Amino acid sequence: MINGQFIKLGPRHAGKIVTVVIEDTHYRILHGEGELAVRPRENPGPITRLYVKGMGTQKDRQGSPDDKPSGKS
Known about the structure:
Elements (H helix, E strand, L loop, with lengths): L18 E4 L3 E6 L2 E7 L33
Antiparallel strand pairs: 1-2, 2-3
């Protein structure tokens, strides 16, 4: 999902780490140097948040030393 838009690549690309190039009118999905897909953007607004989800993306994640736990519970 990119900016609220689902992008389907098919089961043969499952588990691949891809690069998404965000352009003015479309998304370009790359794996290595090969282009997997080009999809038109349904929402041309700015992308303000980035969250990556998938196999192997979260376990190596680490916060900066300045990060403090939230005081809100």
